[in-house]
Each structure stands twice: as C-alpha cells, then as structure tokens.
Amino acid sequence: MCTPQIYEAVAETCRRRLPPAAQGATRSHLDIGAGQGELIRRLGDALPMRSAACDFHVERFDGADVPIAQVDLEREPLPYPDGEFDLVTCSEVVEHLENYRALLREAYRVTKPGGLLVLTTPNVLNAQSRMRYLASGFPVLFGPLPVGHDERHSTARHITPIPYFYLAHALLETGFGRVELDIDKVQRTSVVWLVLALPVIAGGWLRFVTRERRRLRTITAANEPHVAMHRSWRLLVGRTIVVSAVKPGG
Questions:
Q1: Residue 72 forms part of a structural domain
Q2: I need a labelling partner for 240 at 20 to 30 A (CA). Which of 126, 157, 173, 194 fits?
Q3: How do the pLDDT tens digits run along the chain, 250 residues long?
Q4: Domain that holds residue 29
Q5: Exposed/middle/buried for 101, CB within 10 Å: 0-12, 13-18, 19+?
Q6: Is the pTM of this model over 0.90?
C-alpha cells in the first residue's frame, strides 16, 4: 500500500531524526523490502546517501545504481555485516511477515550505534479500523486471506496486524531506544468515526486503564507513554503509522 505520502512521511522523519553527517562523509542506508525502489529514490532526493536494498522479489526492483540482495525475510538473516548502516528503512513490510520481531533483531544488528530505524505499517487503531473490527472482526487492510497466495508484496499477504504498542514494545525489547510515532496523513473517514464514537472510545479507555492499573498492574513507568499513544489523535485518525527508533551509542 506504499504511496507518495508514506514515502514523504518517512523522508520527513529521516530529515528530523538523523544526526548531521560528518564533514565529507556519506551516510549509508539499507531499505528492507525495497519493492520497486521508490523509497530509495525519494530519500535520495531528500538526503544524500549511499543506499543498498534487499527484497524477496528482486525482479520488481528498478534501481540500476543500487545493489540489491535477494533475501527471504521469514527464514534468512540480512546479508550484511554488523553495524553497517546509518539508516535502515522498512516500509509496509512487517505486516507481511509471520515473525516481524526476528526482522527487528536483524535490523538492530545491521544498524550502526547511533543509527536510525524507520518503519511503516497500516494503522489498525484508527477510528475507521476500530469500527470495522467491531462490526466484522477484521481491521482495515486485513481481510480474509486467500490460501496459497505467493505474491508476498500484495495486500492479500497482510497476515500480521501490528498495533502501535506491540511494535514499540518489540523495538524496545530488541534494544532500540527513543521510539517515536508519526503518521503519513489524517484519514477523513476516521475523523468522522471518531466524532461519532468518541463517548464509547473515551468511556472504554477509562475503564481499561483503571482495570489495568489497579487489578492487573500491567501499566508501568517504562511502557505507559506507549500505552497512552493508543488514545492519541495520531493513532485515532492516522492512516499509516511511521515508527522510528535509535540504536544506542555512537
């Protein structure tokens, strides 16, 4: 579901969060699940860097000057040395994987200390998706799956809906820090649903937080900022989440 708006949101996050390059140095960049190479071209316009790419369907890639490696992200490690890249991007990929946490561990390994990881995935927590799930049991962009479908880049292979909290938790458990949330755009349909469902969402959230704090004690100082994001404007109306994190050190 990659669109120019998602690429622009990723580029803006990179511009904002990447530290200045050393004088005369060129940043190194890896795009995981590069598809046809659109994100690499967009980042090349925004930030000078030396890019590499990997994907399962390498035949789709259209970047003559960019080296690309074929890799099965479900079964194989990334074919790069430890601490190789200043920037690692992974746009609209994790929802296609059975084990996205394994990929995050690999992304951590190949990121330089002080380097930045930027991920995007469909926002299953906006108001439209919440209403669709209430009615059907399926979030937006995660419908009934065809059997035997092998086009891994297709939306028909959206097999793992990942709410923001679980993506942030996976990044923190992997070793990343300074996790931040952005969105690609405000979804008008979600704004309408939010207005209509606000009393239910607000009341349900209050009951949820009270129970989790007092009885189950699952909300802690470490995870509370990311739990709170689930009632934020960005998650309630954003179409796609853009989550970034920094590898400590550097």
A1: yes
A2: 173
A3: 568 999 999 999 999 999 887 766 889 999 999 999 999 999 998 898 999 999 999 999 998 799 999 999 999 999 999 999 999 999 999 999 999 999 999 999 999 999 999 999 999 999 999 999 999 999 999 999 888 766 656 666 899 999 999 999 999 999 999 999 999 999 999 999 999 999 999 999 999 999 999 999 999 999 999 999 999 999 999 999 999 999 999 7
A4: 4-125+137-186+238-246
A5: middle
A6: yes
